[in-house]
Amino acid sequence: MTSTLKADLELFNQMVEILLNEEAIKPVAERIDAKELYSRLDLSLNESPMVDQEFRDVLKKVLVTTPKTATNLFFNQLFGGRQGKAILGDLLAVLLNNSMYTYKVAGPQVGIEQEIIRKSCDLVGYGHGSNGTFPTGGSMSNYMALVMARDKHDLSIRTNGVMKRLIIYTSKESHYSNAKNASFSGVGRGNVRYIESDDNGCMIPSKLETQIKTDIQDGGTPIYVNATAGTTVLGAFDSVDEIADVCEKYNLWLHVDGAYCGAVIFSQKHSSLLKGMKRSDSFSFNAHKMLGTPLTCSILLVKDKKNLNDSFSNDAEYLYQTDGDDFNLGKTSFQCGRRNDALKFWTLWKSVGSKGLEEIIDHQFDLADVARTYVRNNSDYTLYSFDNSISICFNYKGIDANKLCNALYEEQVTVVGFGAFKGVEFVRFVTINANNSPEDILNFFRVMEDFVDMHPELLD
Question: What CATH class is the domain 89-347?
């Protein structure tokens, strides 16, 4: 077995070298049309073993045709790039293969997860009674926050189910998971209130309060508000302080969804975008976004750890047999078996320090300033976004954003997405890859402009 593992790791190293060389030569992967996927690649599962060379060849083809999310021409999603020390941690977690539900099977990895949570709670200002967990992603973080809000309102719901009409609130620009989570939690999609946003995409607190009053008058029971730190399209930050005023007035749970940009808590320069965070009841951020750890790495923090226990603790004598609840993390997580997502964040944080994480965050905002300055100084562009965001939303020469982004993708030029706000569609360019330089940002615009010059039909 040891010799086989060594051979497989040698193959892994070969595949890594192939991938890195390919990325340097061809930053955008060869695109395979979905209709041609199974005819172009041998993805079939065979009855008999595949010989080593054939297996290697198949692996190589799969690697070089998979979208390359770490290169300097990938700007499509809210993640990108690589942090080497984080990759090291993730690879070690795979080799260790611990499940994070008990100290008995995870040992020091429990301490690593708890240290990340403790330090993150300190940055938010939650205090000694706080705690957290590592959910499977931002959507699950939001779901767990909603469940805690529901149970804090009425703990008997855990046994009896939802017996009255509960109402929850979020911005029109918030993540789509809020609707799904309302369904899963028993609140119901029809009881989600989408609050109007201002011209920068931020929830309007006065509109929130007006809607709460209306729902109370109509016999509903408001329980929860979801604020957003970095909306999906514009990267806007809701005013936590002002929303907290409303939540405290009506005794509502305030969750701040910072999946996209919540990592600004690591930056002295930009943490003011989350002014009032310590007044929230829960907060989440994804280290696999702004901080560049491999997917997935999501952290949910809770001001009062009692709420985690009330909603998610369940006795299991066959599992929790030693070491006490503080070291048995399955007591406060949604799932039982859970991979170790903490080690990769710890190896990054430990190696570069909090100052290094701050530099990663600040660099992304600096890159966004480079992009916005270029767009503002070029009359062929129309800018739709604003300062204090790493999402740069624009249109070029009036070209339909959907058509332009799809053409760039299909021709394997660069990968960038599009979005819409208040009926206007535009290119959404994100500077979340901290490995990029200002020159890489300007190169994107040159590449795009050259492509349009070569395809005048896009102007029609």
Answer: alpha beta
